Amino acid sequence: MILKGAEILLKCLEEEGVDTVFGYPGGQILPVYDALYQQTKIKHILTRHEQGAVHAAEGYARASGRVGVCISTSGPGATNLVTGIADAYMDSIPIVALTGQVGTSLIGRDAFQEADITGITLPITKHNYLIERTEDVARIVREAFYIARTNRPGPVVIDLPKDVMEKAIEYQAPSEDINIRGYRVMNGFNAGQVISAVDLINKAERPVIYAGGGVISSEASLALRELAETRKIPVTTTLMGMGGFPSDNYLSLGMLGMHGTRYANYAIGECDLLIAVGVRFDDRVTGKIDTFAPHARVIHIDIDAAEIGKNVAVNVPIVGQVREILEAINKRLEPVEAMSEWHTTIDRWKEEFPMRYGATCSGRIPPQHIIEKVSDLTRGEAIITTEVGQNQMWTAQFYQFKHPRTFISSGGLGTMGFGFPAAIGAKMAFPDRPVIDIAGDGSIQMNIQELGTAVQYKLPIIICILNNHFLGMVRQWQSLFYEGRYSFTDISHQPDFVKLAEAYGAYGRRIKDINEVDEALREALTITDRPVILDFWVEREANVYPMVPPGGSIINMLEGD
Amino acid sequence: MKKHTLSVTVENRPGVLTRVVTLFRRRAYNIDSLTVGATEDSSVSRITIVVSGDDKVMEQVTKQLYKLVDVIKIVDITEERFVDRELVLIKVKADNNVRAEIVQIVDIFRGRIVDIGPNTLIIEATGDSGKIDAIEDSLRPFGILELVRTGKVAMVRGCKQ
After folding, report:
1. Interface pTM (ipTM) of the complex?
2. Considering CB atoms only, which of A130, A182, A306 is closest to B11?
């Protein structure tokens, strides 16, 4: 069969099970778009900016567990993907980014719209490729998907020179086996280490599980729950681990770290065994590292050997698939029935230091109230995306997540403008589930142009803007650590979000009265044919509490009034 | 801090060296020397990297390098019995008064004189890093005008099973 490079590319995407791609056309990627035009199996979603495409691919991947795909042209198209690629790298999200490139004879000559995207993305991809021959297209696409989704997942970039996509060759399906000398998929684990871990778990008096994104990507939440319930071990999750353990479970401690619950951080401070599962001891979690879990022996389970011992010393490291390892541990556990003194201590903390927030004196809506309402009305069953900042932390604190892959947020990179395009990706993966983006008035303006996309494809995504007319989290730090010098964080000068929604053909509504919150959300949840912007005017200077000051020990938390 | 010699086998492809060097830069590991060249297998290259670091740093360096898809194998040969060599070219000031003395030093180190100018000599020498340091020190008093060292290449002795 004679096929063009671009046709081989699409054929390979199909074979990888790709049903949806997010992209934006341009000069050098024209051959791929021409091939897309002539087929029906892969749905292409036209975003309004390449950054929207890559975050949508991330949202699709985070919600579904499948590899997300985005397409851009060369040069500025490709560089517009960079933030999203870095975002996927930090959060270990499997995406494949296809970038156009000038023809092979022009590479290196500063041709129009040429950018060295493989060079640019070198430190922020799991791997990347520049395809030089049409004969290599099939092999490279297969390798790229394989690398993106196996072991610790991550982004892979494939750069596609125009002539490589145009050229037609006799196509032969590549042999079944992928053979990459320098890349082996992790199989199995050290059984001896599992026995050591079980021994520590069975003996521990004050154990805590600290679970992260690895639980989600390894589909290990059931195994995690079995471990926790068999030994009655309290569980705290990182931001990336939200949904990996049900928040309404009696063993749940909620999130830990800088804006975690007091009881989670206290439990870390007092525990004698820390079971770290699919985590990387990020500084936002540990605070001052030498005061993190000071009395604990540490079991660290992770797919990435390089994470073991990177930030903290570990007693029992186990490298491998988190789910397999947890299942092996579970088989050997001695169940405990009775609650212990440890649980009494934790219950006391929970009673003494519950997550709470006060009424506002301004009469504007407390932002936390909106998250609680969204949580109640969706019964914790919606897919929630967030932007970055206060909106993100309040969502993690006050939405009762029950399932993995329902909290979609930019954890490691902290990318403002992530949430809305990610919601578009999540909605494409799960058209029948409610998808809600919790946004700030700052973040939402960073990718607001994707309203065009959501309207075009009739995606009923609900955007809840917690509008405080500030870049709230930065203002919070200025308030707490820079003596209230609000340097360039007042963004009162902003568009009328309701009119903006209407201009795009979306539905918009402004809510200033707390008594209207419930009804406005209910109304939004009934809309099925277009996106909705709910512009909630919230307390301007509400802070996220509790809070560990940067560099401090996580048991010393600031509290608001 | 101890110096470690890593012998890294990589795919012989464009950009692989950049990947390795970028990793060292990004994670702030310090490279003392780095050489790269062909091996008996044309599809692989060998990079010999000398890096200073304690055990913890070396463990991270090795694990992070292994995450590069193009890296096939890494051996820390520091504790092995190995042969290592560096090559140096030194251009030294040499007028008639000192020329004989320099020739004598070059002989002692079993180096060679590869160019003679009106007032200069270029000396070539190979050896382990200690020897190269020594010849450099011995010639410094005469005035070294230019010096270039290749960095180290290394090979484990005998046959390891």
Report:
1. 0.88
2. A182
